Amino acid sequence: MIEKMPSSEERTQLFTDLMDGKIPKRVPVVAQLTHEFAIQYAGGDLQEDQWDTTNLEASFEKVCEDFYSDLLPVSAFRLPSFYKLLGSKNFVMGSNGFLQHPDVEGLKLEDYDDFIASPYNCILEKVLPNLHSALNSDPVTRSLVMAKAFKAYTDETSNLFRIYGNLINKSNYGTVNFYAGFCEAPFDILSDQLRGFKNISLDVRRIPDKVEAAVNAVTPLMIKMGNQPFPDKYNATFIPLHMAPYLRDKDFERLYWPSFKKLVEGLAEKGMRSFLFVEQDWMRYVDYLAELPAGTLMTFEHGDPKIVKEKLGNKHIISGFYPLSLLKTGTKEQCIDKAKELIEIMAPGGGYYFSFDKVIITLNSVNVDNAKAVLDYVANNASY
What we know:
17 helices; TIM Barrel; alpha/beta
């Protein structure tokens, strides 16, 4: 572990300096572990502990004790209770205890015009009943189902926030929040939840005008969705980026980028910073990312860190690039050497914090001793 455990104030200062464009005392460390990993790591039962979230606190606490991070390292993004009540087709619990996201069609091809005219009304009236079988019913039944699901959601969320608060206070984590809001890029919401990967791939080629109109129509709704309850320049709205690497350049330029840029700029105009998970390989589009509002947080999954540092490092805050696969297959020395390599590239001049290239979801996806060794090494040795 780290030689001297810092206070919450010291840890918070690392991130406020980072986001103020100053060089922090050392490189901040952010470990990102899911509730599924925490349950497995603590020896719990995935089939049980996701349904009774009172059991999560002990699992989360075990992770906090064993994995160094300057921010709370573990969280639960999706829990199954309210999806089960809704009869969801877009998030379904698998036999292995993990929520699966099948390729779904929430928006029918013939409903594009209704969606373009009023995305919100179309989602309420057509998309939600298509995605959730329990809502495809008469108004009374639908209302009761929605009330039960919302009650389950608020109960789960309230319990999670209680757990997070307890752990932040107990372990003296920094108090900035990179997940103070959540939304998706307009093209991604159309792809992920409305048309599905297969359908949107066809739509881009067959009806690009309607796709363009749809992403433009839903952009204000995504800006509203991304609003933080208490906007703060040291918090952020999380936006995972999905479809861009699968698009041709001309389709990205027309159908993805303009509405996405408008989303990030719209949040910034309201005083809200964005935190992007730059999924897959965005190297074709690095120059576009340079156009986003200064101080945007970006975690990169793949790509060339030298090029990203050169083109984005003076304007944005970068993390990621460290491959989870190495934690699984490499020796402890190899894993630490990779951390050294990335820090030498990314840290000079500031604008960088250390994290892996993605969250850790399953216990068998990494060698936990390697993960702990890397986090401890960076916390003890990484400076700018």
